[in-house]
Amino acid sequence: MTLLPILIHPDPRLKKIAKPVGEVTKALRTLADDMLQTMYDAPGIGLAAPQVGVLQRLFVMDCIKDQDAKPEPTVLFNPEVTWVSDEMNTYEEGCLSIPEQYADVERPAEARVRWMDINGNDREEQFDGLWATCVQHEIDHLDGKLFIDYLKPLKRQMITRKMIKLKREKARA
Ligand code: K1U
Ligand code: ZN
Predict the structure, then answer these.
(1) Bridge partner list, 101
(2) Of 144, 157, 167, nearest in space to 8 by CA
(3) Which of these, 36, 98, 107, 161, has the minimum number of CB atoms within 10 Å of its CB?
(4) Which of 52, 95, 140, 141 to mutate to test the pocket of ligand 1 (most atoms within 8 A of CB)?
(5) How many other CB atoms are found less than 10 A from the CB of residue 73?
(6) What is the pLDDT of residue 82?
(7) In what order do the strands lie in the sheet with 111-116?
(8) SS3 170
(9) pLDDT lower than 50: segments of the chain
(10) Alpha helix locations (H) across 19-152?
(11) CA 137 – ligand 2 centroid, Å
C-alpha cells in the first residue's frame, strides 16, 4: 500500500466537480486501499479522491474514534444523498486539506446515502452523528466544496491566507 500526498487548499483541483466512476476496477480498489491507508496515517476520519488529486467520485471514511473498537473502513463510489433530516447539527469540523484549522459547521443531523460499494453492489444507508457529518463533508469534496465555504468571508479569507503561508513555508523547506 502507498501513502498518497494530500493536496492543501488553495488548489484548483479541490474546487472541481469530480466525475462518476464506471465499474469498480482493480485500479480503483487499489486507489481506495491507498486512500484508507493515507486517511488512517494522517490521521483522519474521511478522505475524498479529489484531496489526492483524483477527480473521480469516491471517498473513504471510518468514524470509529475509540482505538479499542473494531475499525469500520468504508468505501463509497458515486455517493448520492437521497434524504436529509430537518433537524440540524453543529460540529467543529476539520479538513486534511486545511490542516490545523477548525470551525463550527451546521448540517442536517441525519442523511440517507446511496452508493456503490467496493464489490460493485448498490447500497443505501442512513447515517447519524459524526458519520452523517462526515458523509456530507466528503460528498462536498466531490462537488468542489470545502467546509470553509460555509463560513463568513472574512474567516474564510483568514484561513486561506494561513494556508498560502503554510504552502510557501513547506515549499521552502
Ligand atoms: O475530508 C477530510 O478532510 C477529512 C476530515 C473529515 C471530517 C472531519 C470532521 C468533520 C467532518 C469531516 C478529517 O478527518 S479532519 C481530522 C479529524 O477529524 C480527526 C483526526 C483524528 C482523530 C479524529 C478526527
Ligand atoms: Zn475535508
Answers:
(1) none
(2) 167
(3) 161
(4) 95
(5) 16
(6) 98
(7) 46-48, 58-61, 74-84, 111-116, 122-127
(8) helix
(9) none
(10) 26-41, 129-142
(11) 6
Residues 163 and 144: their CA atoms lie apart, in Å, by: 17
Of 73, 48, 34, 35, nearest in space to 140 by CA: 48
All cell numbers assigned to 25: 476496477
Whole-number pLDDT of residue 61: 98
Neighbours of 55 (CB within 10 A): 13
Q: Ligand 1 in contact with 47 (CB < 6 A)?
A: yes
Q: Is the CB of 8 under 6 A from ligand 1?
A: no
In this structure, the residue with its CA closest to atom 12 of ligand 1 is 134
Does ligand 1 lie within 6 Å of residue 22's CB atom? no
Closest CA to 72 of 83, 59, 63, 81: 63
Task: Show Cβ contacts of residue 148 under 8 Å, excluding neighbours closer than 6 positions.
Answer: 9, 95, 98, 101, 103, 155, 156, 159, 160
Cross-strand bridge partners of residue 111: 84, 127
Distance, C-alpha 161 to centroid of its chain: 22
Residues with active-site annotation: 138
